[in-house]
Write the C-alpha cells for this entry.
Amino acid sequence: MEETKMVGLYQPQQHSKLYWIFSDSLTFIKRSLKLIFRNPDQLIGLIVQPIMFMLLFRYVFGGAIDTGGPSYVNFLVAGILVQMAAFGALTTSYSVTYDMQKGIIDRLKSFPIASWTVLTGHVVSDLFRNFISSLILLAVAFLVGFQPTASLSDWVLVALIVMLFTFAISWLSAVLGLLAKSIEAVQWMGFLLVFPLTFASAAFAPTESMATGLRIFAQNQPVTHVIEAIRALMIGTPIGNHGIMAVIWCVAIILVAIPLCAYLFNRQVSKS
Amino acid sequence: MSENNAIVIEGLTKSYKDVEVLKGIDLKVERGTMLALLGPNGAGKTTIVRILSTLLKYDSGKVTVHGYDVKDQAHEVRQNIGLTSQYAALDEFLTGMDNLVMMGRLFHLSKEDANKRAHELLEQFDLVDAANRPVKTYSGGMRRRLDLAVSLIPTPPVIFLDEPTTGLDPRSRLAMWNVIKKLVEADVTILLTTQYLEEADQLADKIAVIDNGKVIAEGTSDELKSKVGNERLELVIKDSENFARAVSVLANYKFIKNDEERTINITIDSGVQEIAKILSLIEQNSVQIESLSLHKPTLDDVFLQLTGHEAEDKKVEDK
Ligand SMILES: Nc1ncnc2c1ncn2[C@@H]1O[C@H](COP(=O)(O)OP(=O)(O)OP(=O)(O)O)[C@@H](O)[C@H]1O
Ligand SMILES: [Mg+2]
C-alpha cells in the first residue's frame, strides 16, 4: 500500500486491512453506544409501548383468549419480548437513513477505510439496547404475575435466541435503511415488515384459532418460531422444532442481509 | 508523480438518466494552489466535487487526484483528500469533541494523537467552549467550522470545499476565509466551490466559471475582470424623457443601458478626464439625473456577462 503523504504532523498508523476492519467497527460501536445514552428518549420510546401492550393484553383482552394450557400472562411474555426485539431492531434502519441524509455515510466513503463498518456499529447497539429493554420488560412482567419455570441455562438460551433474532432483524433493517429515501419512508417500511410478522404470529394467541390462510402463514414464519422457542424455554410448553427453525431462519436472514447491505452500501450513485 | 498538477480533469461527462449534468469539463489545479469553481445553482459544482472525491461514478473522461485515477485507484485517492461537503456531515447527538476524536480514529490516528488533534482543532476553530456540547446545539457557523475541522484532522495534501461559507454571517465568513488562506500557505491544494464571486476573488489563485455543466471561462480574477473592461460609471436618469436624451448624448461612448430602471453604465477606459467629459456633456444638455456612481468591475459583472443570465434585460450597445 502506497504510503499516505499527509502534510500535517499526524500520521495514520499502519496495520493490516483486517485489523482496521475490527478497529473501525469498534470505533463505530462506541459511537452507536454513546448514542443510546445521549438519546435516551429512543430507549424509552421502545420500552413504553411493549409495557402498555403487556398491561392491555394481560388485563383487558387476556381473559377472552384461550391459550390451551398456560395462564395468559405466562403465555404472553414471550410474544411481547420478541415483538419488542423486532421493533427495537428497526432502530438500525432509522440510524442508517439518518447517517445517509446527514451526509455522514458520504463523508465516511471518502475515507480510506472499509466504511460499511458503520453499519456494524448500529447493529451492535441494537443488541445492547434490546438487552436493556428486555430486562426492564421482564421486571414489569414479574410484577404482573409472570411465573417462568426456566432454569439458568434456559435463560441463557432465551437470551441467545433473542440476540440472534435481534441481530438478524437489525441487518434486515440496515437493508431498509440503505434503500429508504427519507426517515419517514424508513418508518413505514419497517412497520410494514415487522407489524405483520409480529401480529400474524403466536405472540398474542395460539395460531390454532386462526383462519386457515393466516394460520399457515403464522405457523411457518420466523417470528412464531422464535416466540414458541423462547416460550417453551421460559414456561415449559413443548418446543418441537421451533428452536431449530428459529435458528435456521435467523442465520438465513443474516446470510442474505449482510451481502445485500454490502452491495447497497457500495453502490456508488448515492441518492441525495 | 510526473506532474505539477494535483488535480487533472479531462473531458469529464456525467448524466443522470437522460439529463446531461457535466458536458465535457477540462480543468487543472496546480499543486499548492487554489481553484475556485464559480457557478449558479445547478451548474454542476457538487457533481464535480463528488466525482473528485470518489463518491460518484462518471460517464467518460479522465480524472486524477494527487496523481491517482479516481476510478481505478479510489483507495489511494481517499488517502490523500479531505472533503467538506455542501451540508455539514456531523453526528448531531455527539459532542464536537466526540465527533473529532471519532473521525480522528477513523483516519487511523492513535488514541493519543486523535485526542491531541481534536484539542488543537477545537482551539484553532474557536470551539473550545462548545467542545462538550452535542452538535445539535451548535449554530450554523459552528457546525460549518467543526465540519471543516474534521476534514483537516490529517491535513491531506488535497482538499475539496463545497460551498464552505454558504449560510454564514459576514464575521464567520471572514473567519472561514482566514482558515482557508492558511491552508493554501501550508501548500495544500484546494478546490473550492462557491456562488459568491467575492469569495473566489479573495481566495483563489484561479477561477473557473461553470454554468450548465460547462466551463465558460477560466483564469485569474484579474484576467476575468479585464474581459468586462475597466471601471464603469453608473447614471440613474430621472425620467424617460431625460433617459432618451441621455442615450443620444452619450452615443459616442460604450455603455449598457436598462430602459426600465433608467440606468446607463458607461465603460471608462481612460480615467478621470473621461468622467469629467461625460459629466459636462450631461450638464450641457441639461439631462436630469437621480444619482451617479463609479464602480470597479466585480466578478458579478464577469459572471453576468459570461453566463448571460441577465443579458436579456441588459442590452449591450457597442459603438
Ligand atoms: N441524483 C441526481 N439525480 C438527478 N439529477 C441530479 C442528481 N444530482 C444532481 N442532479 C442535477 O445535476 C445538476 C447539477 O447539480 P449539482 O448539485 O452538481 O449543482 P451545484 O452546482 O452543486 O448546485 P448548488 O449551487 O445548488 O449546490 C442539477 O441540475 C441537479 O438537478
Ligand atoms: Mg452544490
